Amino acid sequence: MVIFAHKLFHPPQHMRTLEDKIIDCFQTAISSLYGKEADKSQLQLQKTKKEFKGDFTLVVFPLLRLSGKNPELTASELGQYAKDNLQEVADFNVIKGFLNLEISREYWLSFLTKALEHTEYGYFPIREEEGSVMVEYSSPNTNKPLHLGHIRNNLLGFSIARILEANGNKVVKVNLVNDRGIHICKSMLAYSRFGSGETPLSPEIIKGDHLVGKYYVRFDQELKKEIEILVSEGMSREEAEKKSSLMADAREMLLKWEAGDPATIELWKTMNGWVYQGFEATYKKMGVDFDRMYYESETYSLGKELVFRGLESGALYRKDDGSVWVDLSGDGLDQKLLLRSDGTTVYMTQDIGTAHQRFEQYKIDKHIYVVGNEQNYHFQVLSLVLKKLGFEWFNKIFHLSYGMVELPEGKMKSREGTVVDADDLIDEMVGTAKQMSEELGKLGEYPDEEKQRIYRQIGLGALKYFILKVDPKKNMMFDPRESIDFNGNTGPFIQYTYARIQSVLRKSSEMKGLTGERAALNEKEIALVKIVYDFPETVKSAGESLNPALIANHLFELAREFNQFYHENPILTADDKANIITRLELSKLCGEVIRKGMYLLGIEVPERM
User: Fold this and answer.
1) Are 443 and 437 in contact (CB under 8 A)?
2) What single DSSP character describes residue 61?
3) What would you report as the CA-atom Rg of the chain, rounded to the nearest whole angstrom?
4) 277 with 303, same domain?
5) 392/435 same-domain check
6) 406 — phi, psi (to 5°)?
7) How confident is the model at residue 510 (pLDDT cuts 50, 70, 90)?
8) 327 — phi, psi (to 5°)?
9) Which of 66, 135, 192, 545 is positioned for an S-S bond with 36, CB 3.0–4.6 A?
10) Residue 81: its H or E element
11) Per-residue confidence band for 16, with pLDDT thresholds at 50, 70 and 90
12) Are strands 132-136 and 44-47 parallel, antiparallel or unpaired?
């Protein structure tokens, strides 16, 4: 899923990579050795596979027409040229048509120094001359509270926004609240019939979004009762659903809302107000935010206007019942409803209006919708409808389609009230972090206020990391207990590694005379430096593929390698000062990369645990 990569990454000149130098060297080598010119696209440089000795591998086969020699001889000649002319190359070996280059220890030590001096190592400056990238995420309905599925959506969207910023893009984070429609009317109708004046301030205090969600579930319960009665009277289930008076009343309420009926609008404002307060509290708990909020109630009319324009231009058509459709059969799809026969709108209508409004307001280069994979068809249609309506930016929208989150118990259903509530899950994660920290004796005699803060950082870090370490395209199983383990590929393991590094650095500040020459790097230290070296490329790849899992798993690899290094190599008690200096600098750099990488995932790292 690599998209618009050329728009998302422009490495600044001062971060010219070693790979660039190697490619330049090989271009010169081919000219010098064979009197030919090689295009950079012919020079395929990649990381050497772990089972072979080396750091970078050149695939020689595309160059044989230039050399006129066999693969082994061509590789040997190019390898010798690189060794003789590029001081970073210490040695090389040839395996068939693959040239493996070994980078010198001196280079890795000098890289360590330069990376420490570059305070924004791994991030790239915002390019003011470029347009913006808009990321839409969350997009909740105001008929129920946020749940586990929303958590994955919010964490993905928020992390993607930070990753794109780290790649030098101006990013606008937006949320579209689906605050109108038949589903909203279901909650409103149930509340008006069964609510008895209950409010979030009633004696049994309940969060506003939870209260409204309670009546969404109640509507479904009452609807099922009504259908069962009709079925028992001899109707088929399908006929009973059509004859339901409750559904008819919900549709009537939607018509009243669109007609501006004062009582209906007042109830809608009241209940939505409760939900907004609840959402705001959940977003704050989750640690996500937005630059701009959009509301379907404010954009659906624009979408309706654009549909009428399309009708006039002949891009759309009207059926005998008055409904308006688009014919996409020529694009391999089918006909899609845009306006119902009663004149009410559908999701697609609102999305047309919202997209038009955003491209007009922000002049964005790309619009990324973070929405579950059950909406793949919807976004295919949206792009094609925008094209038929004549908008040149129709191909600048992109659907980041992600898989569903399931629990060991199975799928969740909002209407039946079997979802995992986001607030409850976050509280449970923090509580579990507290319990496990106390069992392990991690926080000792820390002040209570600091303990509470760390419990929250660990709990949220566990939740966010467990979700973001999975490729967005994949369905996933969420296991709260597994996610908060202090060992393995988890957020707390990486957070603890960072805290361990900070502890070492605090102790080192008490030592005097830590200046002087650095020691040569040993194999374990070089292995750590190489992982750090790959961090900017990982950030770049995560931005190109819109995949935070690349960063999450890179951080795990770094944390695991650091802990092995820590156990095998004394830092503050090393046998000479040069080793102490080098290992402290390496530790500091690893800590900085962990902090920056976790920031891109929206995760805080405690200074001590």
Assistant:
1) yes
2) G
3) 29
4) yes
5) no
6) -120, 160
7) confident
8) -100, 110
9) 66
10) helix 71-85
11) low
12) unpaired
Q: What is the DSSP letter of 601?
A: T
Token output for 448 = 């209570």
Dist CA 561 CA 566 (whole Å)? 9
Q: Identify the burial level of 608 via C-beta atoms within 10 angstroms of its C-beta, where 0-12 means exposed, 13-18 middle and 19 or more buried.
A: middle
Q: Are residues 463 and 499 in the same domain?
A: yes
Tally of structural domains, the chain: 3
Q: In the beta sheet, which residues pair with residue 407?
A: 410
- Is pLDDT of 586 > 70? yes
Confidence of residue 596 (pLDDT cuts 50, 70, 90): very high
Query: What pLDDT score does 193 carry?
Result: 96
465 and 360: one domain?
A: no
Confidence bin at 420 (pLDDT 50/70/90): confident
Same domain, 384 and 470: no
> What's the domain range around 26?
5-103
Q: Which two tokens stand for residue 9?
A: 């990454």
Distance CA 529, CA 515 (A): 21
- 3-state SS class at 120: coil
HEC secondary structure over 477-520: ECCHHHHCCCCCCCHHHHHHHHHHHHHHHHHHCCCCCCCCCCCC
The identity of residue 522, as a single letter, is N
Please tell me the distance from the alpha carbon of residue 48 to that of residue 57, in angstroms, as a whole number.
5
Contact between 597 and 551 (Cβ < 8 Å): yes
Residue 305's pLDDT band (cuts 50, 70, 90): very high
**pLDDT of 418:** 53
| Lowest-pLDDT choice from 14-28, 300-314, 327-341, 538-552 | 14-28
**Whether residue 213 has pLDDT greater than 90:** yes
Residue 224 in tokens: 């099922």
Determine the Cα–Cα distance for residues 132 and 541; give it in Å rounded to an integer.
19
Tell me the CATH number at 99.
3.30.1360.70
Report helix, strand or coil for 570.
coil
Nearest Cα to Cα of residue 537 among 577, 488, 491, 597: 597
CATH code assigned at 593: 1.10.730.10
| pLDDT at res. 409 | 62
Distance between CA atoms of residues 30 and 38, nearest Å: 7
Helices (H), 363-408: 376-388
Helix (H) or strand (E) holding 161: helix 148-166
> Do 277 and 180 share a domain, yes or no?
yes
* 13 phi, psi to nearest 5 deg: -60, -35
For residues 518 and 109, give the distance between their C-alpha atoms in angstroms, rounded to a whole number.
8
Taking the C-alpha atoms of residue 465 and residue 155, their distance in angstroms, rounded to an integer, is: 9
Structural tokens at position 274: 């409760």
Report the alpha-carbon distance of residue 21 to residue 4 in Å, rounded: 25
Q: What is the mean pLDDT of residues 507-517?
A: 76
CB 365 within 8 A of CB 397: no
Phi first, then psi, for residue 104 (nearest 5°) are -70, 150
Tokens 């790959």 belong to 534
- 58-82 tens-digit pLDDT: 999 999 999 999 999 999 999 999 9
428 and 353 assigned to the same domain: no
The rounded distance, in Å, linking the Cα atoms of 408 and 522 is 45
Angle between helices 535-545 and 523-533 in degrees, nearest 10: 30
* Mean pLDDT over the full length of the chain: 91
